[in-house]
Amino acid sequence: MYRDTHIFCCTNYGYIDYTKNFIEYYKRLNTSWRLNVYCMDEKSVQALKDISEIHIIHYPIQDISEDFSKWKEDIFKEICYYRYKVIHPLFESKSIKYALYLDTDIALLRDPVDYMIDYMESTDCLMSGICDEYNQTCSNKESCVNICTGCCIIRCDPVTIELFKESSYKQHIYSTLSDQHYFNTKIKSKHTYPTDLFLHPPKHNLLNDRTYLYHFNWLEGHQKRDYMIKNGYWIV
Length: 236
Known about the structure:
Spore Coat Polysaccharide Biosynthesis Protein SpsA, Chain A
């Protein structure tokens, strides 16, 4: 474990190409931390098993689809909430201080991990990450109304332990657009990073040599892959 932080991503076989692309970026960073890759199905495990730089964890869930899914689809929502099944036992046992989650539709341009952990160490917020508003700057950097759950770090705290219980979030899976809407409703203490350091497509014009990562989350379905290929971010 790196600095009391569990650093991970999740995949099913439908997202395996994105995951391989993300892992390639991770490998190029030559980091001192190990990426934990949670695989929802056996096909994902087999597809990644020869990559020695990562730690594969086969954590299957009954009835989770192996297929790729789009935003707002029920399968997509189930996959989003899967990460909380991963985090909750770690938080409940208090074996970690932070959980740092990264989606696999991300290009890691520089290593963001120390920045994200240092930020949490310097504040008392429960969560920090990318502002997912369309604006060029966050409307409220210390209580963001739309923080992105696809690139964030969360503090182990009684509030977050409760939110990660399946009994707490299960009713919200199908009644909200995604886990992001659930979190933005339930957590008020959410800080965001400077928008030129952690990007998504509406803020492309802010890209610079200090940018840590580019998250392609404003694109649906395989528009993500097409955009990444067109702009040189698909490296596998």
